[in-house]
Design brief:
Layout (H helix, E strand, L loop, with lengths): L2 H32 L7 E2 L22 H6 L2 E5 L5 E9 L3 E6 L20 H10 L11 E5 L1 H16 L9 H4 L2 E7 L2 E6 L2 E2 L20 E2 L2 H5 L15 E2 L2 E9 L9 E8 L2 E7 L11 E3 L2 E6 L2
Parallel strand pairs: 11-14
Antiparallel strand pairs: 1-10, 2-3, 3-4, 4-15, 5-6, 6-7, 7-8, 9-15, 11-12, 12-13
């Protein structure tokens, strides 16, 4: 075999190797796009985080419209000297902007310390305050009050059903209606509201209310805030950014829907078939059939500048 033929064969072999390597690279890239190593398809929004200054509506005096928010306004913000995270705008006015982190800060966390929603999101609040205590670039929450959706809804149902006598099975006694009533934050100090009173934790050995004295710079999203982002039956897909299927995050809200007994479940935003879906789940993750990976996604409110 002459030298020319050998060179041709060598050249063809090299070309074949390059082609095979390119094919293998394309296959690997496609696999990474559609599957992760655990076998779950990971959702990631196509929207790219921008700097605050690139959004005209985030400047002081301007207001981002609901249509803008639904399309996704995603910004990159430093929370301290070392950490930078991405956040989605969920609400705003001329002076402030309220944003939701684009991923779970805590991967898996129970909503409550007990298997009931009557004491409120004790586990979730204690953990999210602990994890964000060094977010020095985020201001303390000066004043915030949330009236729990679940309890209020259940109380209204009880009053209506009892009045019309349509359903005598509703137990609207004080013992049943006692429970988590929401939260109040003043100068960064979070207080659970229990039956319209500040909850000290004295009634429950499993919870020490002093654990909530860490200064609050963040909170959790509420059921109402999620519903404000809904269009007919659809929620914006960025609400489940960076989640696997059957993974989600807790809200501040309890739920009255699972049964007529208020105390059953809490509301969570979940990834269901790669679509955002609000579900009622037991406060303790392990008791849920599919959604055992519910974590915490902080909400911050900062001034426009």
């Amino acid at each position: 075999m002459n030298k020319k033929n050998m060179n041709n064969k060598l050249r063809k072999s090299l070309i074949l190797l390059v082609v095979l390597a390119l094919i293998a690279t394309v296959v690997i890239i496609l696999m990474k796009l559609f599957w992760d190593t655990t076998g779950y398809k990971i959702y990631q929004t196509p929207y790219t985080a921008r700097s605050w200054e690139q959004y005209e509506c985030l400047k002081a005096g301007n207001v981002c419209t609901r249509e803008d928010i639904l399309k996704a306004i995603k910004v990159k913000l430093p929370v301290n000297e070392k950490e930078i995270y991405n956040f989605y705008l969920i609400d705003n006015d001329e002076k402030t902007a309220t944003l939701l982190m684009d991923r779970n800060l805590v991967g898996v966390m129970d909503w409550s310390l007990v298997d009931s929603n009557l004491r409120g999101p004790t586990s979730a609040l204690i953990e999210v305050l602990e994890r964000t205590k060094n977010w020095s670039f985020i201001p303390l929450i000066e004043s915030y009050e949330y009236v729990d959706f679940g309890k209020k809804y259940f109380e209204d149902i009880c009053k209506e059903e009892k009045k019309s006598l349509r359903d005598a099975s509703y137990d609207c006694s004080e013992d049943v209606l006692r429970g988590y009533n929401g939260i109040k934050i003043t100068n960064g100090v979070t207080v659970l509201r229990f039956n319209d009173e500040d909850y000290t934790g004295e009634e429950d050995d499993s919870f020490n209310a002093t654990q909530l004295t860490k200064k609050a710079r963040v909170r959790l999203i509420t059921f109402e805030e999620i519903e404000n982002l809904r269009e007919i039956n659809n929620y914006p897909d960025w609400l489940i950014d960076n989640t696997m299927e059957n993974e989600g995050y807790w809200t501040l809200s309890s739920s009255p829907f699972e049964s007529t007994l208020y105390s059953t479940s809490a509301m969570a935003m979940t990834n269901y078939l790669n679509k955002p879906f609000v579900r009622e789940l037991y406060p303790v993750n392990q008791h849920n059939e599919l959604n055992k990976r519910n974590g915490l996604r902080p909400v911050i409110t900062i001034e426009k500048y």
